[in-house]
Records
---
Amino acid sequence: DAGVIQSPRHEVTEMGQEVTLRCKPISGHNSLFWYRQTMMRGLELLIYFNNNVPIDDSGMPEDRFSAKMPNASFSTLKIQPSEPRDSAVYFCASRSGAGANVLTFGAGSRLTVL
Amino acid sequence: AQKITQTQPGMFVQEKEAVTLDCTYDTSDQSYGLFWYKQPSSGEMIFLIYQGSYDEQNATEGRYSLNFQKARKSANLVISASQLGDSAMYFCAMREPTEGSARQLTFGSGTQLTVLP
């Protein structure tokens, strides 16, 4: 299995631009999580999906952030418009159902907003 | 309130020695899970070990063991026979039951471990 695949690995953009981060979970996993990691705030859960349905988006910082999961094999996290304080590493993670515990993380997408 | 506390921002250990990374947690639930993840400088998050709250035995995975003390709400990670490749950031995390079927992980602030040759 290829694991959780995230793209792009690195993104540098200018303030005000739209950013789209992508994630392909492990096949068969039915829960998907987006985390953000910064030096100041550590790892924060932004949103998670169960069977493609958003369960809790209370961690999404503000309306500039949105996430979708149109099917079981693809999710996006979009920031529009981006701001310098959005600079962080964004992780996607997935987990199988049926009582499974372990989250498998992708390699992360490092976003820099100038 | 902080749910996961890692009090050691940085730790040093001599190669081949054992090291303990501290983690305390706070929950009122009876059913929960505790995890340790490793984040090397390359950035990926690597799962190391899991302990369920009802597990009576301490979890072990190779050179990793979890010293689970339920009454003290601590879940320390012990790495035996440290190797240079163990140098990384280590995160403790807890899963608590939440509404619905999905269960979230809450992470501590991490401990940066450096293994000295």
---
Amino acid sequence: ILNVEQSPQSLHVQEGDSTNFTCSFPSSNFYALHWYRWETAKSPEALFVMTLNGDEKKKGRISATLNTKEGYSYLYIKGSQPEDSATYLCAFKDSSYKLIFGSGTRLLVRP
Amino acid sequence: NAGVTQTPKFQVLKTGQSMTLQCAQDMNHNSMYWYRQDPGMGLRLIYYSASEGTTDKGEVPNGYNVSRLNKREFSLRLESAAPSQTSVYFCASSEPFRGGGFLETQYFGPGTRLLVL
């Protein structure tokens, strides 16, 4: 059974704080690592797809790094805003068609 | 484009009743998926269809059946609902592989909230 772990489970920060969370995944048979943003009462939306060790992706104030050798990815948010409040999901992809999702990190940004 | 649509949005069933959750996508995606989401757990794959005409079991297939009716539609059926199937169900679809890479982003529907009493 493949295990994708995310930490912390939840995070409360003040507006303007920078924050980061971790996704741990199996380091063998790696194909891709996905990050999704999931706002309450909406569907998950893709943020990044990362495939190469050392990959770094950036979208506005959000960035992600990938270490496939040790099996982790970090998601960073610089200068958090209330609209960043959401659950951030990572998902590991191996050689099958399937994504294995972590349980997410719930971020709440207080104004 | 509507993206991925799901019906119904909400359903209450009694134990033992059957129902079909419908999903359709208009993005010409080959692959479609059904997930369930329970508190404290990530999205868990129930069934998937890599392409029209094929379906495969995911992580938690027991108690469910699926039909890939055509390229657009992928339905999930509960033959005899149980309280353990109370959950939020998400359908997703993804682009075909490009250049041999696995860059397929999944696009999710709005979800169906199911309560089994």
